[in-house]
Structure prediction request, 229 residues.
Amino acid sequence: MIPQHRLKTLALACLFTLPTLASAQPESIKEKASYALGIDIATSFTKQGIDLDIKNVIDGIKDGLSGKETAISKSEMAAALSEFKKQLIAQQQQIQDKQSSGNQKAGADFLAANKIKEGVITLKSGLQYKVIKSGTGAIPKATDKVTTHYRGTLIDGTEFDSSYSRNKPTTFPVNGVISGWTEALQLMHVGDKWQLFIPANLAYGKRAVGDKIMANSTLIFEIELLKIN
Prediction:
């Protein structure tokens, strides 16, 4: 089986070596698949912020497939790729740092405005919560396992996870989740339903999780404590 990245490269080569087809409407399965893979590659490059010289990409693919002598030596290629990778990493880090800083400020602004809203309680750690429904059951300890229903969103309302949508509660150790949850759960009674507003340092901090939770994101959860296992 040809690895996906090799398949993409071959498809890209086919597209570039047949430039007259670029403006033609793909008709056969092969043409449509080749076009789709080309779009996939271009989208991947764009998402990663990779800026390439298309003419030289095409020339490199042609020379590599034909087996002719390369325009530059292997040592030059290795050095160029190494330097390009360094530049790309630095560029991506700069973008991530900018996003992280923006998320941190947005989160701080949100929490500052949120803490004065009716019913919102702010703890010493910076964790904020609002009681939606009160229960009368036991309070879990850090060493307990609990079963909960929950829904998580960003401060702009974007949902990134929900046990409600899966129609299946989740069981986990109280001390095995983000620290904002661990702190809140040890204050909740079974039957409670709270809304949590969790600063980034009590959530995932500078770490991005999935494609929605970026570095330094403040998170909002509705969490319902169903039982202590």
About this structure: The radius of gyration is 26 Å. Strands lie at 120-122, 128-133, 145-154, 159-162, 170-173, 193-198, 219-228.
